[in-house]
Design brief:
This protein is an alpha+beta fold and about 190 residues long. It has helices at about 5-20, 55-60, 80-95, 115-125, 135-145, 180-190, and strands at about 35, 45-50, 55, 65-70, 100-105, 130-135, 160-165, 170-175. Strand 7 (about 160-165) and strand 8 form a beta hairpin. Helix 3 (about 80-95) packs across helix 6 (about 180-190). The longest helix has 19 residues, at about 5-20. Residues about 15-25 have low confidence and may be disordered.
Amino acid sequence: MTTMTRSVFLPFISFFLLLTLGASTTLAKPRYNRTVEEYKIPDITLINQDGEKVRLVEYLDTGKPVILEFIFATCTTICPILSIGFTNLQEKLGPEAANLRLVSISIDPEHDTPEVMKSYLQRYEAQPGWDFLTGSISDINQTMRAFDAYVSDKMGHRPLIFLHSPKENTWVRIDGLMSGKELKDEYLRLKK
């Protein structure tokens, strides 16, 4: 995204977020549901935006905090909002973002090829440490089920974000849309 495109695009998205969320950033109570869950990561191999095979269990067990989302590249509703959250988090963290692994997993593997995913990450100015993964339909469904995020129709997916500290066996599950500040606060809370 060029600086000019971004300067036009981001205010529009910010305005849309305010309308969608129906609140200002001064609300004391979050607009999302936060729970702590245990998930068994399936031992499957996915493919990243560079066409490289990634063994999911090893990839998520890196010694770094992980923030994971389920999205698809042609989504025009909640996926762009979630992805802008990742972009903003990388920007706000600056050099510290290198200590974090951001993971987008496609829920539309028939369309989201490595080339499509690479283009998507470029559109959102993804920095190193943010990867987009795809795989077979059965592997993607297995992964969504493992995180209790399965939907049979991609259009019915919910805004879910999963945060994992390498020190814990549990994941923080965020169900709902959150502001960039709230995402950063959840990440910082995870690091404690």
